[in-house]
Structure formats: C-alpha cells, structure tokens
Q: What sequence folds into this?
C-alpha cells in the first residue's frame, strides 16, 4: 500500500464531525461526504455506512410490522435481522481495520 | 447481486414452502366440503413453483400460480345430506388425505432445508469476519 493512498483518510473527518446534524436515512448527506473524499477509502467507508443504514432501516421496519401484527412472513424479519447484524459486524470490522492502519502510520518513527 | 443474496434467495424458497403449506392446509380443511351434484366440487389447490432466472442476477424461486384439481370430484350416495339430489347423490372433493399429508411433509422439509441453508451461510459469513480479527 502506497502512502499517497492513505491521504484519503483525512477526508473521513467530515464524517465524524458534521457541521449540521445528519438526519437518519438522509442519503444525500452521505453522498455529499463521499464526494469529498473522491474515490478513496472514505468513499468506500461512506458507502458501507450508507448501505448499513438502509439494511438497518429495513430490519427496523419489519420489526415494527412484527410488533404490530402486520407482518405476513415471519422469515422476512428474521432474514433482515440476520443481514443487518452481519452488515453491522462487517462495517465495524472494516472501520476497526482502518483505525488500526491509521494508528500504525501514526506510530511510525519519523 | 449483494453480498448477502443467499438470504433473499433462501427467503424465496421459505416463502414458497409456506405457500405450499397454506395450499395443503386449505385442501385438508375443505376435505369434507360437500356440494350439490349440479355444482362443481371443491377443487384442490396445488402451488406451481417457477425458478427466477439466475442469468438475470436474481436467483430464487417464485410462485407462478395455482393449479386446480378435478372439478368433477366424486359423486357419492348420501341421502341424509341436505344437499343430496333426487337420487340421494352429493359431490365430494377429489382430495386424498394421505397425498396431502405427504405434500405437507415435503413442504415442511423444504422450509427446514431453506432455513438450514441460511444458517450455514450465516455461519460462513461469521467465519469470514473472524478472518479479519487478531491478524
């Protein structure tokens, strides 16, 4: 991995420190942060977080339907819950690896 | 095709099995539905499964529709029945309980098999996530 590609990590800052509160499910704001970083790692991470949000929203909708008795197929909710859980684990794993990589760079003796 | 497409594909299989069980339960519930000889008998319902073209990147199975059993049924002698005609005949549905129970077992096993696929896929994905840990 070349050092120049890691410079894309600095573009993650707008994700952690948004100037305005981002409403849940607001895809346009996620897309806006993605364009800041270009096609770098932040773009991938923003896309993963955006996808995670969609999957969790679907799972939440089905959970609400299950609770209110509107759910026709119980397996739909269980499958969505599994997908949501796995997507969350995957996104967190990617984030942890990114932080680990960043810390490795920071510990590098100059 | 998303990463967790197995869930959607197996979900379609589970849904088909559920609809099959719905059809079987309807057939069994109506096994004693007697009609007049002038009317058509209760027609057994059979689910028609159709594969979703894998080449389109979709995969899975869907219910193409329902096929119906014999409308003629069985004309049997039951003069005490209020629906019996002048000859004492009524029309009973052409449903075999043994056949329906066999179909019920098939549908149930299909449901369980699709859930087993989901469990294995979930286990495989969790193993893949373990790959990235403590390296």
A:
């Amino acid at each position: 991995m070349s050092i120049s590609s890691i410079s894309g990590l600095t573009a993650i800052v707008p994700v952690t420190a948004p100037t305005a509160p981002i409403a849940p499910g607001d895809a346009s704001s996620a897309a806006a942060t993605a364009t800041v970083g270009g096609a770098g790692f932040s773009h991938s991470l923003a896309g993963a977080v955006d996808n995670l949000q969609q999957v969790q929203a679907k799972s939440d909708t089905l959970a609400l339907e299950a609770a209110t008795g509107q759910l026709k197929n119980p397996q739909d909710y269980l499958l969505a819950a599994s997908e949501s859980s796995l997507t969350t684990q995957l996104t967190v794993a990617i984030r942890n690896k990114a932080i680990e990589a960043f810390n490795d760079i920071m510990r590098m003796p100059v | 095709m998303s990463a967790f497409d197995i869930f959607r594909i197996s979900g379609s299989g589970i849904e088909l099995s559920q609809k099959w069980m719905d059809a079987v339960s309807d057939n069994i519930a109506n096994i004693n539905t007697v009609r007049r000889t002038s009317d058509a008998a209760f027609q057994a319902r059979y689910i028609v499964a159709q594969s979703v073209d894998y080449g389109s990147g979709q995969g899975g199975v869907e219910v193409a529709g329902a096929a119906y059993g014999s409308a003629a049924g069985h004309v049997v002698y039951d003069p005490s029945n209020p629906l019996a005609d002048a000859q004492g005949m009524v029309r009973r549905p052409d449903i075999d309980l043994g056949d329906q129970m066999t179909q019920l077992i098939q549908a149930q096993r299909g449901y369980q098999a699709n859930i087993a696929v989901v469990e294995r896929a979930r286990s495989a994905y969790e193993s893949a996530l373990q790959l990235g840990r403590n390296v």
